[in-house]
């Protein structure tokens, strides 16, 4: 008899766990705790056992009945609470919450577009540290200490010789030091300058550097590549203009303008009535730079270019203040 009671108890507890709703709960109650239920039938059997055993078995049986009732009540509460919850989550009268859909920052969008175009032309994407040393940021790029070209790139010092990079050009040095030609990379990233903050300059901005070195790389290839880029970025009818310029790490060097894609070159507010928009600097890699990285400048030639991402995004979207990119104002960001 005691064994039987134990068996009923085990089954009761096991089945109790599987109950999911009120209907199952009720069936279960009738089966075990009802007037003709299993537990009552055990009480009925009490009559048949020997007198001396009755008190012990009776006591165990009573304990079972109490335990069963208690566990059953617990389960009932649990199921009712769940039902309550479901009811609340289905209340269709509660007003909905407005959800903002996330989107990419206009600079990220511009960067991704630039990357996509160059990757489709066979460029790999490289990167370098934003905390850079004087050697990679200046010296190896043919900008010795005291060179006046440093004036234009005043920056933030971490300590002597360790700075926040002022351009992405140091990635050229790092890549060339790590492998032999052919090298064809772009290096997008953040750069820093100690500028007076205004609508046109900010203390940080983004650049995309480009570098292609191999045997026989020519200025004509540089022009063709940049023209293909400009047509995809700004529209197939744009033209490029190369103006002679100076950068210590390229010789010859040029600054490149794209014909104004707003007015088609006729002159408008965006191009300040000049018909051209400056978009980047470029040139043929200076043999002195090859010396710093250990490339044979008799055998290899290469071109490099560097463009400002903010500037390109500002031209493309007609944004007139660079600070807008960093203020996290939804009214601005929502427009892209
Ligand atoms: N590093 C230059 C700057 O920040 C931009 C630049 C010009 C990069 C000419 C180049 C280049 O690679 O060839 O002003």
UniProtKB/TrEMBL annotation:
<dbReference type="GO" id="GO:0005737">
    <property type="term" value="C:cytoplasm"/>
</dbReference>
<dbReference type="GO" id="GO:0006432">
    <property type="term" value="P:phenylalanyl-tRNA aminoacylation"/>
</dbReference>
<dbReference type="GO" id="GO:0004826">
    <property type="term" value="F:phenylalanine-tRNA ligase activity"/>
</dbReference>
<keyword id="KW-0479">Metal-binding</keyword>
<dbReference type="GO" id="GO:0000287">
    <property type="term" value="F:magnesium ion binding"/>
</dbReference>
<keyword id="KW-0648">Protein biosynthesis</keyword>
<keyword id="KW-0030">Aminoacyl-tRNA synthetase</keyword>
<dbReference type="Pfam" id="PF02912">
    <property type="entry name" value="Phe_tRNA-synt_N"/>
</dbReference>
<feature type="domain" description="Aminoacyl-transfer RNA synthetases class-II family profile">
    <location>
        <begin position="114"/>
        <end position="315"/>
    </location>
</feature>
<dbReference type="GO" id="GO:0000049">
    <property type="term" value="F:tRNA binding"/>
</dbReference>
<dbReference type="InterPro" id="IPR010978">
    <property type="entry name" value="tRNA-bd_arm"/>
</dbReference>
<keyword id="KW-0436">Ligase</keyword>
<dbReference type="InterPro" id="IPR004188">
    <property type="entry name" value="Phe-tRNA_ligase_II_N"/>
</dbReference>
<feature type="binding site">
    <location>
        <position position="251"/>
    </location>
    <ligand>
        <name>Mg(2+)</name>
    </ligand>
</feature>
<dbReference type="Pfam" id="PF01409">
    <property type="entry name" value="tRNA-synt_2d"/>
</dbReference>
<dbReference type="InterPro" id="IPR006195">
    <property type="entry name" value="aa-tRNA-synth_II"/>
</dbReference>
<feature type="coiled-coil region">
    <location>
        <begin position="61"/>
        <end position="89"/>
    </location>
</feature>
<dbReference type="GO" id="GO:0005524">
    <property type="term" value="F:ATP binding"/>
</dbReference>
<comment type="subunit">
    <text>Tetramer of two alpha and two beta subunits.</text>
</comment>
<dbReference type="InterPro" id="IPR002319">
    <property type="entry name" value="Phenylalanyl-tRNA_Synthase"/>
</dbReference>
<dbReference type="InterPro" id="IPR004529">
    <property type="entry name" value="Phe-tRNA-synth_IIc_asu"/>
</dbReference>
<dbReference type="InterPro" id="IPR045864">
    <property type="entry name" value="aa-tRNA-synth_II/BPL/LPL"/>
</dbReference>
<keyword id="KW-0460">Magnesium</keyword>
<protein>
    <recommendedName>
        <fullName>Phenylalanine--tRNA ligase alpha subunit</fullName>
        <ecNumber>6.1.1.20</ecNumber>
    </recommendedName>
</protein>
<keyword id="KW-0963">Cytoplasm</keyword>
<keyword id="KW-0547">Nucleotide-binding</keyword>
<comment type="similarity">
    <text>Belongs to the class-II aminoacyl-tRNA synthetase family. Phe-tRNA synthetase alpha subunit type 1 subfamily.</text>
</comment>
<keyword id="KW-0067">ATP-binding</keyword>
<dbReference type="InterPro" id="IPR022911">
    <property type="entry name" value="Phe_tRNA_ligase_alpha1_bac"/>
</dbReference>
<keyword id="KW-0175">Coiled coil</keyword>
């Amino acid at each position: 008899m005691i064994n039987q009671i134990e068996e009923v108890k085990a089954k009761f507890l096991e089945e109790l766990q599987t109950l999911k709703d009120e209907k199952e709960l009720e069936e279960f109650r009738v089966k075990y705790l009802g007037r003709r239920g299993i537990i009552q039938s055990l009480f009925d059997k009490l009559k048949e056992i020997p007198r001396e055993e009755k008190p012990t078995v009776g006591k165990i049986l009573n304990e079972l009945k109490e335990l069963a009732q208690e566990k059953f009540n617990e389960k009932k509460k649990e199921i009712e609470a769940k039902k309550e919850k479901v009811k609340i989550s289905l209340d269709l009268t509660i007003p909905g919450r407005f959800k903002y859909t996330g989107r990419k920052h206009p600079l990220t969008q511009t960067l991704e577009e630039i990357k996509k175009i160059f990757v489709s032309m066979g460029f790999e994407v490289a990167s370098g540290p934003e905390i850079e040393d004087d050697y990679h940021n200046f010296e190896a790029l043919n900008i010795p200490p005291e060179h006046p070209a440093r004036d234009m790139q005043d920056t933030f010092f971490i300590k002597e010789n360790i700075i926040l990079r002022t351009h992405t050009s140091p990635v050229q040095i790092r890549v060339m030091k790590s492998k032999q030609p052919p090298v064809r990379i772009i290096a997008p990233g953040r750069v820093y300058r100690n500028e007076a903050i205004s609508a046109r300059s900010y203390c940080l901005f983004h650049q995309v550097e480009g570098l292609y070195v191999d045997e026989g790389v020519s200025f004509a290839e540089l022009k063709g590549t940049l023209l293909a880029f400009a047509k995809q970025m700004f529209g197939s009818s744009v033209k490029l203009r190369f103006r002679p310029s100076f950068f210590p790490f390229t010789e010859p060097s040029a600054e490149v303008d794209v014909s104004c894609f707003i007015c088609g070159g006729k002159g408008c507010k965006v191009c300040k009535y000049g018909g051209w928009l400056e978009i980047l600097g470029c040139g043929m890699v200076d043999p002195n730079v090859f010396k710093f990285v250990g490339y044979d400048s008799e055998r290899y030639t290469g071109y490099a270019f560097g463009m400002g991402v903010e500037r390109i995004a500002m031209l493309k979207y007609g944004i007139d203040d660079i600070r807008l990119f960093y203020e996290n104002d939804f009214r601005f960001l929502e427009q892209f």
